[in-house]
Amino acid sequence: MKPFKIIPLILSAILFCQCKKEDVLPNAPIVNLGGENWTRTNLDKLIFENFTKPYNIEVKYKWNPYETNFNRTLVPPSESQVVPVLRALYEAWMVPFEKLGGKNFLKDNPISKFVLIGSPEYQTDGTIVLGTAEGGTKVTINNVNEFILDNEASLTEMLTIIHHEYTHILNQTFVYPVAWQRISTRWYTPTWFNTDQVGANQQGLITPYAKASAKEDFAETVAFLLVRGQDTYDWIKDQYPDAAPIFKLKQDIVEKYFKDAFGINFKELQREIQRALSNLFFSSRP
């Protein structure tokens, strides 16, 4: 029993030594505890010169828990992944929209902040979130650490995320037509993930996620047409003749939306983005 008697005496001595009257807590502020300041690197300079200065776009790649969903386990992006992602974003999103919409298009219809996250965001229903648009101006891109610039599937996935989320941003300025909501209403469901690609296509939806809601259907259709291209869209339309009129109607509405809202010829935008994707893929290969 002696050890149990000694421990309280030791603890009392420690507390007595640590709580002497002359010991006071420091009142000077602790600077940079949360990493608010850091040495500006060449990457930071590149971002400033190519995104912040000309477009007022902030790119956040250094870890900041306040910019993420703190209810999920996420990891920071690797710095080596930032430039490839930004190159894809610049060449296959920014340049085509500026060319077809005018040099001020991205300033008039801005994304003010990109937040890069290294990992995907896993949901409790088994799905993953690869990107989000918030507040009409902020876009979060997840799974950056898995991006491979010279891999066609990876490049397609990344650009689909960007164009999907940017469509949501554009819809904040000009809402997609009301007629869109009447096309596939009966198929929209929060359990969209229970439908596979074939099932969605048979119902006239371009991807399973298009079943989530009318706004997701619109964004998925726009992104698919721009990134996967007209040939792939037409191939799916031809595979499902019963759904072909729905796919045609949806493309017609998309094209009219871009023309009426922004004065953009959607088919020309398609071609510019397809050209940019091809150049990115082949120019980045060893």
UniProtKB/TrEMBL annotation:
Question: What's the short name of a Pfam family annotated to this entry?
Answer: Peptidase_Mx1
Protein name, please?
A: Zinc-binding metallopeptidase
Question: NCBIfam families of this UniProt entry?
Answer: LP_HExxH_w_tonB
Q: Lineage from the top down? A: Bacteria, Pseudomonadati, Bacteroidota, Sphingobacteriia, Sphingobacteriales
